[in-house]
């Protein structure tokens, strides 16, 4: 209990408590966790003061795991059980992965997403990512000294639905309440834009360890509007390492490599790349297990020429994003560089030449995404005060569509649509008396289904028999603010409703997540039931607070008997919360949700009317603050 | 506020083709600032669902009004005079001839990798489009002539598609 309430500069002593929220940059190579403290975003370091957590997990025979530097130290000696760059496997099957042959893992091809066989059992990329996220969660909890309200997790803007869903599942599995999935370049823009009070159109060039994103954003006072985004979710710093690795093999021509030697040479390649960020040539020497030795010198010009095609690939995406936004390179006011791989001088040079301006590198490219995520998390949990408010309008990176006759794709929602977005399309039956219809949801820009990513298949049954072409089947896509899709279908003509909602095939059901959560908790010798109960209690508390706040500001929208009902439901939830029955708590939450439904609608109407009265957000906030 | 109100009412704007784009932008942002899911991360599920529906609605309305061709389409739809772009494809012969000429010129410039000519075609078509939209504004806002406006919209659909083709040709020369 604090004895003194100390107000931050420029902010009045808030009547409510500061809520603990974090932003996590779950990177291919490194991950970070950040929070906002005293109004400033900061990265939380480990006990040794290291801000980065290498995204490496090593599984041990007893079922436990180690993460970060401890795991990284064993990546050459125990390559099969030490998973690096797991982000590349999220929501992916084996056939999607480049350079599988250079990887030391025992892959298991599971439907939808590959898995890796380790000495601690078969692990899905979701579980491996969850182990990284859990380490970061624990780091944050011990640094902040309390229960976290929630986290913003960043994903590459170009991640498709399956990759986003996998990331959200991993976060849930790590016991995090996901406030929002936030696109990495957008997070960087928040960190950068708020820092510099920037206005105008900016490009964010984000070359990470395994992914490349380009986002074009319009920054105006209080609004970050993404105009377009593009990229490649399988292109990053790792590929530059791989080019060096191939060059080394060509030069030295060693015997076929063991997994250990392959890992060793990949590490040497990465070191050489990093060395060349500040020097003109890199010495490479390695002693292989076979007794052979490699002794090479890589000049920076050679490095630039063997990676030339990778950089032009990124510039192709930049051109496409500019075209999608209806802009030319000269319309861009500033180019923000994000991701450790943008430290390579040939990357900075190429981007500078393309935009005819010096790229902005004044924020640490490794930290800027985490800092932006923390800033957004702080806003989302409501810690911000009146004058530092902003709105984020992001887009989906890839078109969503349906398979139609002949394996063709009918686009339903085009790429770069601002989210949330919903769109419906009507289809009909092609056979007399047809009572079922298969619906196949795909994502991508190509015309043929086989060239797009298959997200989900489901069947609409119970269509009343009609002649061909008479049924009207309406398929609706809804993409939420996390960029995640829900699809449903319904037959219109007869009034018979047959609707189904799907989660993409790579997504895990809530039960599966709960099951995995329980398993992982057993390993951690934690009490899964207690943890789940605790979560329900936190959720209930949050709901009570939200309802109370709504009553306080807007009770004039309710009749006296409605208020009584809501208060009774709050009281009941409060009582149930004290007990240890999670199911009862959930039921009481449902009840409260039910009695506040109309209230929620009226409040929304009121907000909209206020917006329409033509007053600005700032004015409304001033009013609310008075 | 009625969730099913028309897009103009939603933004508190007069129902007309001539529209203050800056006003639309700011009304859209004000509305999103109130209803966007980011404002409701700590709210109940009912609040969250409503917020997503409203934010979706705001995006839909904004997209429908932002681009002139879609706005015209929408106005005609409100007036009960659908454009029938798919069923009514009859076009005056001279318009179709003109289209052929444009397309041939574009294909020729593309084959000859004539960047300058493509730029020139692009600019000419843009100016052409501006004039067409000006005329459309008169038909919709002043003369209330829906039949003529619908025909103008059908022509504009051709021209907009042509503009995209020229732009694609320009992009293909750059690669």
Structural class of chain B: mainly alpha
Largest interface (CB within 8 Å) is between: A-B, 50 and 35 residues
- Multimeric state: heterodimer
Low-confidence residue ranges of chain B: none
Radius of gyration of chain B: 20 Å
The chain-level mean pLDDT of chain B equals: 89
**Number of discrete domains of chain B:** 2
Supply the CATH superfamily name of the largest domain in chain A.
ATPase, nucleotide binding domain
Could you describe the largest sheet of chain B, including whether it forms a barrel? none
Classify the secondary structure makeup of chain A into a structural class: alpha+beta
CATH architecture of the largest domain in chain A: 2-Layer Sandwich
CATH architecture of the largest domain in chain B: Up-down Bundle
Average pLDDT, all residues of chain A = 85
Radius of gyration of chain A: 26 Å
Note down, in words, how this protein is organized.
The complex is a heterodimer of chains A (626) and B (175). Chain A is α+β, with helices and mostly antiparallel strands. Chain A has four domains: 21-100 and 111-195 and 367-383, ATPase, nucleotide binding domain (Nucleotidyltransferase, domain 5); 237-308, Actin, Chain A, domain 4 (Alpha-Beta Complex); 400-507, Substrate Binding Domain Of DNAk, Chain A, domain 1 (Sandwich); 527-625, Substrate Binding Domain Of Dnak, Chain:A, Domain 2. Chain A is built from 16 helices and 26 strands. In chain A, the strands form seven sheets. In chain A, strands 1, 2, 3, 4, 11 and 12 form a six-stranded mixed beta sheet that branches. Chain A has a five-stranded mixed beta sheet with strand order 18-13-14-15-19, with helices on both faces. In chain A, a hairpin with a 2-residue loop joins strand 14 and strand 15 (223-232). In chain A, helix 4 (184-196) crosses helix 10 (368-380), helix 5 packs across helix 6 and helix 12 packs antiparallel against helix 13. Chain B is an all-alpha fold and 175 residues long. Chain B has two domains: 7-66, Helix Hairpins, CATH 1.10.287; 93-174, HscB, C-terminal domain (Monooxygenase, Up-down Bundle), CATH 1.20.1280. Chain B is built from seven helices and no strands. The N and C termini of chain B lie far apart (49 Å). At the A-B interface, helix 8, strand 19, helix 12, helix 14 and helix 15 of A face helix 2, helix 3 and helix 7 of B.
